[in-house]
Amino acid sequence: MGDSDIVQDFLVESYENLDRLDRELVGLEKNPDDREALASVFRTIHTIKGTCGFLGFNKLEAVAHVGENLLTRLRDRQLTLNPEITTALLSMVDAVRQMLSGIEKSGQEGERDDSLLIATLTRLQQPPAAVVPNIGNLLIERAAVTQEEVQLAARQQAEGDPRHMGEILVDQGVVRPTDVVDALYVQQASRASSTVSDSTIRVDVGILDKLMNLVGELVLARNQVLQFANRLKDPGFQAASQRLNLITTELQEGVMKTRMQPIGNIWGQFPRTVRDVALGCGKKVAIEMEGKETELDKTIIEAIKDPLTHLVRNSVDHGIELPEERVKWGKDPTGRLILRAFHEGGQVIIEISDDGAGLNVERIQQKATERGVITAEQGTRMTEREIFNLIFLPGFSTAAKVTNVSGRGVGMDVVKTNVERIGGTVDVQSTLGQGTTMRVKIPLTLAIIPALVVTCGGDRYAIPQVSLLELVRLEADEAGKKIELVHGSPVYRLRGRLLPLVYLNQELKLALDARAASNGDGAVNIVVLRTDERQFGLVVDKINDTEEIVVKPLRKQLKTVKTFAGSSIMGDGKVALILDVLGLAQRAGVVTQTRDRAMAGKATESAAAAGEKQTFLLFAGPGDSRMAIPLNTLARLEEFQVAQVEVSGSQWVTQYRGQILPLVRLNVVMEERRSKLRALQGPPAPDAPPIQVLVLNHDGRSFGLVVERILDIVEDRADVKSAATRASVLYSVVIGERVTELLDIPAILRSVDVSAAQPTPVARSAGVAN
Amino acid sequence: MVHTSQFCTFYLDKLLFGVELKGVQEVIRTLDMTRVPLAPAVVSGLINLRGQIVTAVDLRRRLELEPSPPGMLAMNVVVRSEDGAVSLLVDEIGDVVEVEEDTFEPPPETLRGSVRTMIIGVHKLNDRLMHVLDIEKACQMTDVVESAAAGR
């Protein structure tokens, strides 16, 4: 045995630890989710175990070891604490204490038999569902034997009978051998399932990052192969490349999943944060969390941690009132803070709601006017929501008193900037006296994003889809008239509102060389973008296509170029730069760096939006009839080559973003003379022109509506209505001073059996819909 | 025993330069390049090096030499810097030379300016001088970037 001084120190330390263990374990039983207490218990046991091993107290070490294993399971959330586990852990503490007193008296561990305790602790390590039922119990369940008979056999086993339970029972003739065999099968099955339940392994993040990079490369290679396949027109090669396409998409999703982490990982610290802040300002706050398991890419989790923490602190500090005040308003003195996270349309929404005082519109307005952020006149024209959004301006704080937590006029603008940096948005909703909800919308991942590829000055640039609102093309003859100048600054009237125009070639100082002019036809392509609540039109030479691109960060040498967010490799192997829409807007002066003028434009925007106008997509249907759908039902406009269309049954389908998109042909749906239908069966003629498709989401499913031609997007009141003259039409309305048929989408879907095609979740990104 | 080291050599405006061979990832012929608008002039563009996006530095400009004649196809010397791979654009590739330590001399006092920070010194070869380039300094262009940004 070691030096007696060391042993003495060990004993003193251990007794203290054991006393604390008792308290903590009982506390844990009341509140099994207390991670910190659990971690503390774990550390204590771990210390005891380590010292025992060092001093050579093997029995003590063995007991502490199994206890530690059990605690590891609890800490890793493979098990939850229940009274049985607590009892076992407490009896372990007792056993350790007895051994320690033995050591104190005799210097020896004593002749103890702890095998029963060790067995109990070991057994409890199995997750409850995975506890392998013993054969006796299985037989009792099947009423093959009685409880007494099993107990008798068990006693025999305990007395040293080496035979198995089943054997004993069969030998005694109380059970048929077939029953025992059946029961053994059941037991085997439950053993197999128990190994599945803990089938996770730890993987180095570096390996996952590398895998992600490789998948990125594969996506690029896939894009290249697809381009070749389209050019070569070899059916065998096309089929193989389509398969490659699907597999790559699945692999990409699979690898992306491995990098996903539940948002609960960062929420874990919030109860503590809330407690500290609440204590600091004398408030009572209960925190609730919903959707802890919602998963996000690792890099995004890291990026939103700080903004979220700030929002949470802010809610407690500013949102929730003091207990006395709450009582006065007839509320529970304890305020509620609710964190919710969920998926919606390929994005993750995180809401931070409190049931506090809510935002005071008048006070914010007054403050904004005082600070010169808006003029009094602007203030009167602003909507409530616009006023709420004023709190995201730099240097804005309405807190009556500045606390050490928040309310110093810094924070909300930083939150907004940080969330926008990863392509997200923050929004605020509030009802005076009832509470405030902060809504943060963020993309699932940053590594691979959908983007619009445009050409300017002979080079391609990618524009992240999140900033994209719509595309406008002005033909050469109308471009001159429709682009007007406001003291030299070009603008375009987009549905009656002036849209500032930014010429990409000018902003990037691209020489107007021959390549740029090769566009030739004089048409103007405007990409309508939104950033920081402002819209602007980016004029480019050519609009190519939307593509899933792999984002590669720019190297240090180019970090100062704020107009680019990164780079990516295109299908042909060349590099394209990804535009940073916010950076570009700032450079062009659309968004001022301090955002102080942002509000002036917003007021006019809302004024224009007044009046109950709706936005419609106009298109030509069968027989060139003029038809429309509300723009908000539209997810995207696509053009498919005839070769991409496949036939499943009598249904046209196409592979679209890794899913099967049923194509509904309006000319088939609306054809009244059934006899003509025959001609429309089968695939499209191989030499037919590309088909125009409106991608719509209905009831959580995507489908494509094949139309003749896309006409325009118009905003109209559409209040002159008349009853429909044919099925699939809701009613006829006057849009843009012409009679237009408004389609009844549910009716169209009922008339064709789109359910025959594979149900597809809502398309991952809504490009056009605003 | 005399300590020797190996250098990858290349030519810029008829001058012979060398970088330590262990810092060179590979040497490749001309690749398609994507220009980066608004970037400092020394950045020629971005190249796709087997899926890795690499910044190409116009070494002539970086070293304040005459701009390369139009139509000349530059070679890429891809070096490993702290911030990942960077491609140095050079006129022509030379041999790999092995030099002894005692042929080295620091640059003359008359060499001034930012170039001095990039040229560690010269090795006196039999027929000519080989300028030894500091890879890290040549790739690190915070000074250049800042001046470019300030001028904007």
**Overall mean pLDDT of chain B:** 84
Query: Counting H and I runs of at least 4 residues, what is the number of helices of chain B?
Result: 4
What is the total tally of β strands of chain B? 12
| Name of the CATH architecture of chain B | Beta Barrel
Instruction: Note the quaternary state here.
Output: heterodimer
Intertermini distance of chain B: 54 Å
- Spatial strand order of the main sheet of chain B: 9-1-2-12-11-10
Amount of helix of chain A: 40-55%
Q: What would the principal axes of the Cα set say about the shape of chain B?
A: globular
Total helices of chain A: the number is 27
- Overall number of strands of chain A: 30
Describe this entry's structure for a reader:
The complex is a heterodimer of chains A (770) and B (152). Helices cover 42% and strands 25% of the residues of chain A. By secondary structure, chain A is an alpha+beta fold. Chain A has six domains: 4-130, Four Helix Bundle (Hemerythrin (Met), subunit A), CATH 1.20.120.160; 135-196; 205-258, Helix Hairpins, CATH 1.10.287; 262-443, Heat Shock Protein 90 (2-Layer Sandwich); 448-607, CheA-289, Domain 4 (OB fold (Dihydrolipoamide Acetyltransferase, E2P)), CATH 2.40.50; 614-756, OB fold (Dihydrolipoamide Acetyltransferase, E2P), CATH 2.40.50.180. In chain A, the strands form six sheets. Chain A has a six-stranded mixed beta sheet with strand order 10-14-15-13-12-11. The longest helix of chain A is centred in the N-terminal third of the chain and has 28 residues, at 205-232. Chain B is α+β, with helices and mostly antiparallel strands. Chain B has one domain (4-150): OB fold (Dihydrolipoamide Acetyltransferase, E2P) (Beta Barrel), CATH 2.40.50. Helices cover 16% and strands 47% of the residues of chain B. Chain B contains four helices and twelve strands. Chain B has helices spanning 59-62, 113-118, 135-139, 142-150; strands spanning 4-12, 15-20, 24-28, 33-34, 43-49, 52-58, 75-81, 84-90, 92-100, 104-105, 119-124, 129-133. Chain B has a six-stranded mixed beta sheet with strand order 9-1-2-12-11-10. A six-stranded mixed beta sheet of chain B has the order 3-7-8-6-5-4. In chain B, β7 and β8 form a beta hairpin. The termini of chain B are far apart. The A-B interface holds A 216-217, 220, 457, 459, 508-510, 552, 555-561, 563-564, 567-569, 573-577 and B 32-40, 43, 45-48, 51, 53, 55, 57, 83-84, 86, 139-142, 145-146, 148-149.
